[in-house]
Write a structure and sequence with these properties.
This protein is 24% helix and 28% strand. The protein is α+β, with helices and mostly antiparallel strands.
């Protein structure tokens, strides 16, 4: 199974978006449309690391760079951002090259912050859920609208389904077992450091004895940095 298949293995069914949805729109890239949340409280724009990796693997024009930014996420979590990527994005009939900080995790694939709103003179009409740009007020777009005629990769459709579920608050359904709840119930099985498993030995039944092999594939620089840190940590532990 290649990296692209791995990325596409966690899709959900598309859920209709509520009329009370946040101010999100479909940002156009070469690979297709990606849901983006307009956040007037964010100082800089962000892209989730799995989205940045997907765009890199699909040959989306992107330039990675290093940065050092400390920020506080919407849930109060402090995070240190060390990577950024410049993407060519399009809204309505206008396009820009814009830099996005790469975040590990988050409810939205892309966040458009003040560093995007100010240079583009973006005008946000919260009451009517519309937006435009100061240099072209006659061109008006609507929040929460997805162009059904635009195709796109299955991964991109999965992102839209994910955002739809987050908007409706259906991501954490009653009775669903999350990683957080499982780790709280069985804390002895989890550790903040890499190492050997602490659970009881068990056997895994296989269909055959053929080894599993995967051809080498490219990896986005942010993810490669994580892999290097993990390998170095294991080497230090012997």
């Amino acid at each position: 199974m290649g990296p692209r298949a791995t990325l596409l293995s966690t899709y959900r069914n598309v859920i209709p978006v509520s009329a009370d949805a946040p101010l999100w729109l479909m940002l156009q890239l070469k690979a297709g449309e990606v849901p983006a949340f307009v956040d007037t409280g964010a100082q800089f724009s962000c892209v989730r690391s799995d989205v940045a990796e997907f765009l890199y693997l699909t040959c989306e024009p992107c330039v990675f760079s290093l940065c050092s930014v400390c920020c506080v996420l919407a849930d109060g979590t402090r995070a240190e951002v060390t990577n950024a990527v410049k993407l060519h994005v399009k809204l309505l009939d206008f396009a820009w090259d814009h830099e996005f900080k790469v975040l590990n995790g988050g409810p939205f694939p892309i966040i458009l912050g003040l560093d995007f709103l100010r240079p583009t003179s973006m005008i946000v009409d919260v009451a009517d859920k519309r937006f435009s740009f100061g240099f072209a007020p006659h061109c008006v777009g609507e929040f929460g609208v997805r162009n059904e005629e635009v195709g796109g990769d299955t991964y991109l459709h999965g992102l839209w389904a994910e955002v739809s579920g987050a908007v409706l608050g259906q991501n954490d359904r009653a009775g669903a077992l999350s990683v957080e709840s499982f780790s709280r119930e069985f804390p002895a099985l989890f550790s903040s450091t890499l190492g050997t498993a602490k659970c009881a030995p068990y056997e895994i039944e296989l269909l055959d004895s053929v080894p599993v092999r995967s051809s080498p594939y490219r990896c986005a620089p942010p993810k490669m940095a994580i892999f290097r840190d993990m390998v170095n940590e294991l080497l230090q532990q012997g």
